[in-house]
Predict the structure.
Amino acid sequence: MSIRWVLVDGYSVTHQWAAFLTRQARARPLAQQRDALTRLLQQYADQTGRHVTLVFDGGAAKHQPDPDPTGPGLHVVFSPPGKTADDVIERFVAQAGHRDRILVVTSDNMIRHTVEALGTQSTSCDLFELEVETALRDLATAVRAHTRRR
C-alpha cells in the first residue's frame, strides 16, 4: 500500500533538518521557521500528491496563523492548550482508517513506537529530509524541462 497521508511533527523537523540548524536560521523567530517549513512541505505535497498535515505545539506559538493558510494538499495544525503535537498526531492516527497508508515523521522514538503499534509507518526527520530533497529536486528538473520546451 502506498503512503497517502504524511503527519509531520513540525518542531521535531526544525530541530533536525540542516536548513534550520544554521546560525542564521536559528536566529529567525519561530514564526519564520514555521513559514519556511510550510513552504517546503507545500512543494513536497504538490510534487508527490500526498496529503501532508504539519503539526506544531500550540504552546510554542505566541500568535497562531489562520487555521489553514496553505494550499491544497497541506494543512497546518496547532495543538490545543494542554496538548502537544505528539498528542494530536496520536489522535489523528488512532481515528484514521487505512492506517497502513499513513507515514508519521518525528524523531521522538516513543511516538514512533506508539503509532507503529497502531499500524502506521514512521520515519525519522533525517530520512524524511532526504525524501523531501529528492522530491524537490525532481520538481526543479521537471520545471526546467518544461521551460526548455517553450
The chain has a mean pLDDT of 89.
